[in-house]
């Protein structure tokens, strides 16, 4: 078992036990606040990402980092060769699927790239910017909601019920832990252009449990959708 699996299990267990400790109602309230933050972020972040990707300095910095990590050896120009090249990249399945699916002339035109190499670098750079913006916005909104709840003293006014409340709280805490892990996956995606990110992706690809969590991440599915940024 690799260290990343242990870390994920510890996070899930920690949130589940905390949910059982504080009870279902309070845990669901916290979970509901997180979901609101994610919904607002999903609405706001694409517009911010578009503006950042229009910035030559930002795009130039990220594309340079990406180009240093990816090795473009034995890269063919035909579609089967390109699919084979993408499948060999040290990336999780969901990212590879996105790169293969969006490898079209329309996307090349929207990105203003002339070849497959430019497409790969540009796509990964945009995904990284997308992920970074999403993560920063969701953290900002989450902190804002927490401060608002603290100011209004809402949580202390919630009822505390024992028995079934604790069991349901454990399950709600586990769900909250999964969402936190999903957000952690976004952070890992931001680091995909680094050697550390490459190592983490290798750990994910080698483990079925981690691959399942990463590739079925609903938040990442939103971030990987280049169409929301390009068109």
Topology diagram in text:
Layout: H1 3-22, H2 24-53, H3 56-69, H4 79-87, H5 93-101, H6 105-111, H7 116-152, H8 164-190, H9 195-206, H10 208-215, H11 218-224, H12 227-230
Helix pairs in contact: 1-2, 1-8, 2-7, 2-8, 3-7, 4-5, 7-8, 9-10
Keywords: Membrane, Transmembrane, Transmembrane helix
Transmembrane segments: 28-49, 127-148, 168-191
Protein name: Colicin V production protein
Question: Which labels suit this protein?
Answer:
231 residues; mainly alpha; 0% strand; globular; Colicin V production protein; transmembrane helix; transmembrane; membrane
Task: Give me the Rg, rounded.
Answer: 20 Å
The biggest beta sheet, please? none
Q: What number of structural domains do the residues give?
A: 1
Q: What's the helix-strand series?
A: HHHHHHHHHHHH
Please report which band the strand proportion falls in: under 5%, 5-15%, 15-25%, 25-35%, 35-45% or over 45%. Answer: under 5%
Task: Indicate the overall shape.
Answer: globular
Mean pLDDT: 85
Number of strands: 0
- Runs in which pLDDT lies below 50 for 5 or more consecutive residues are none
Task: Give me the number of helical elements.
Answer: 12
What is the percent of helical residues?
A: over 70%
* SS-derived structural category: mainly alpha
How far apart the termini lie comes to: 42 Å
Keywords: Membrane, Transmembrane, Transmembrane helix
Protein name: Colicin V production protein
């Amino acid at each position: 078992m690799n260290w990343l699996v242990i870390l994920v299990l510890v996070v899930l267990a920690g949130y589940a036990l905390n949910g059982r400790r504080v009870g279902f109602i309070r845990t669901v309230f916290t979970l509901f606040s997180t979901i609101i933050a994610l919904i607002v972020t999903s609405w706001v972040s694409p517009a911010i990402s578009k503006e950042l990707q229009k910035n030559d300095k930002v795009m130039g910095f990220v594309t340079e980092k990406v180009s240093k990590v990816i090795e473009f050896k034995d890269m063919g120009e035909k579609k089967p060769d390109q699919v084979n090249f993408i499948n060999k990249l040290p990336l999780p399945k969901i990212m590879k699927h996105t790169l293969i699916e969006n490898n079209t002339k329309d996307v090349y035109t929207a990105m203003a790239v002339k070849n497959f190499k430019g497409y790969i670098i540009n796509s990964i750079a945009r995904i990284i910017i997308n992920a970074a913006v999403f993560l920063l916005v969701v953290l900002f909104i989450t902190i804002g909601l927490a401060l608002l709840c603290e100011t209004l003293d809402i949580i202390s006014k919630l009822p505390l019920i024992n028995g079934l409340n604790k069991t349901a709280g454990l399950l709600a805490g586990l769900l909250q832990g999964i969402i936190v892990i999903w957000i952690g996956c976004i952070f890992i995606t931001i680091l995909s252009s680094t050697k550390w990110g490459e190592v983490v992706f290798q750990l994910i690809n080698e483990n079925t449990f981690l691959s399942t969590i990463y590739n079925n991440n609903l938040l990442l599915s939103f971030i990987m959708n280049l169409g929301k940024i390009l068109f």
